Fold this sequence. Notes:
The chain is α/β, with parallel strands linked by helices.
Amino acid sequence: MDPESPSNIPHSRDSLDLIAREVRTCQLCPLSRTRTHAVPGEGNPKADLMLIGEGPGYNEDKQGRPFVGAAGSFLNELLKSAGLKREDVYITNVVKCRPPQNRDPLPNEIQACNGYLQRQMKLIDPAVVATLGRHSMGVFIPGERIMRVHGQPREVNGRTVVPLLHPAAALHQPALKAAELEDFSRLPAIMKEATSVPTPEPEAAPPPAPATEVEEPERPQGKLEQLRMFE
Ligand code: URA
Ligand code: SF4
């Protein structure tokens, strides 16, 4: 990662709006020349779950919003089936501009754009990051095979990362679709686990008082109790 790249300059008052403004005029990689609209991302700025796709497609490039085409409808369905609302999560991509003909994003494009993603993650600070597709997974878990590890959460730099299949890939293949639904259904439990404050160890019970210690003083008896003694 180039530490000198402008998108990596730490901002003392960074914000999602500032990032979005920078992204919309960004020229850090060649994708800037072919985009119609850059797609910074959208959703709950305090989301516990951040979904990270690969890059905008045709519809996203037209609208400047992530996951609004067929893959987006399926993503909405997946979230709903897991009891999650789209407006509760934050959705973005590893590259914010559409690769021509929807080709895979190139390593140098992912690298050029990574500063924006890191800043978004720092601000939102989600308990769980779910990557969508292998290129997004590769940013967090390099060298893994998605078909081997999809759906399995792991800790990456103190955050829970769940690699998921890309909705566009899962949409038309029944076996993958079933796997994707199953992986999404586990997200709420993974989020619960990741957001729960670890319960502190119960404090060790104090050692029993030695027998020789001062005895508990006899309880003074009130008048009523004295009378009761004769009942
Ligand atoms: N596919 C992606 O990876 N991202 C989008 O935003 C849309 C489709
Ligand atoms: Fe900038 Fe990212 Fe767009 Fe490349 S893909 S021009 S780095 S915003």
